[in-house]
Design brief:
Length: about 140
């Protein structure tokens, strides 16, 4: 018997979608690497949602203070963090919502939204520069 899974557009309005499989206990999710987590079939980690994106977040490590706000607030766990340091973005599962950019406290931000087709090197070259204290 093959189990049939619903597509993202087939869920009823108001449905509760659980992140993890009901039959699996998750005791310490913060220290469990994403690839080892028991995600449910309705979680976007199990299927790519990258084709939804019009804009994508680009990460500039030169401005990151590793506050982890982006990791905490990302609704799809698309922020890759290792040893409490932001190391990148899982573009296979990022849907381009921009929440990570909104919660980033640095100035300029360490995450900015760019068009999906923009090359990462081009985006980094266009990054706003830090203002020196003398300019303020």
């Amino acid at each position: 018997m093959t189990k049939e899974y619903k597509g993202w557009d087939e869920f009823d309005a108001g449905s509760v979608l659980f992140s993890f499989k009901k039959e699996t206990k998750v005791s310490d999710i913060a220290t469990t690497l994403p690839e080892n987590r028991p995600y449910s079939e309705s979680n976007s980690y199990t299927a790519s949602v990258a084709d939804w994106r019009v804009l994508k977040p680009v990460f500039n490590p030169d401005y990151c203070i590793h506050c982890q706000f982006c990791w905490i607030y990302c609704p799809d766990m698309s922020i890759i963090s290792r040893d409490q340091k932001m190391v990148g973005i899982d573009m296979e599962h990022c849907k381009g919502c921009g929440i990570c950019v909104e919660v980033c406290p640095t100035s300029p931000k360490s995450l900015l939204m760019f068009p999906e087709q923009k090359d990462e090197k081009e985006a980094l070259a266009e990054w706003p520069k830090k203002e020196s204290k003398k300019e303020k």
